[in-house]
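Look over this today:
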Amino acid sequence: MKCRPAEYRVEHRIPVTDSPEKSKRGRYFLKDNFFRFYGRFVYPMYSQYMAGNYSPMLEKVRKEWQSYTGKIFEDIVRELLVKKMISDYPDIGSWWNRKRDEIDILGVNRQGRKVLAIEVKNKELGESEAREILELTLDKTKLVKGISGQELKVGIVARKVKGRERLEGDGFLVWELEELIP
């Protein structure tokens, strides 16, 4: 088996609203899920793993699995949304600031003066929980420089969302995973 070049395994991302030439808020991400898993669960406990003591590692996997798969789910949703929304929002990525505020997916159309802010949750959501997440996302958009005065849509993607009709009636966008899969 041949090892792939490093550029396929590590990705440098900046907030979607930043200029690639000027941004100092870049982050590096492992793109390959095998390396993500290894770096998060195996490498920190490598000596125990090599000694055949798997229990601590398995416990860590059980404890952190939902969080770990959440990032992978977010990447999958981002890819699916890019295919679906690229004509309306040519710039799609994530947004964050130095105060640890984040928006999972932010789509920007500078010519059309439109912005799309989406939170991604790898679980089933009740209506009140989904509404709380949507309102928090709406608040976070006020922290994004350069988008005030533009048409703003706020949405959520989850495995399932209860009460989605009422949320959509209030002007929010709601997608369930099955709708995004071609």
Summary: The longest helix spans residues 55-85. Helices lie at 33-42, 46-50, 55-85, 127-141, 164-169, 177-180. The chain has a mean pLDDT of 91.
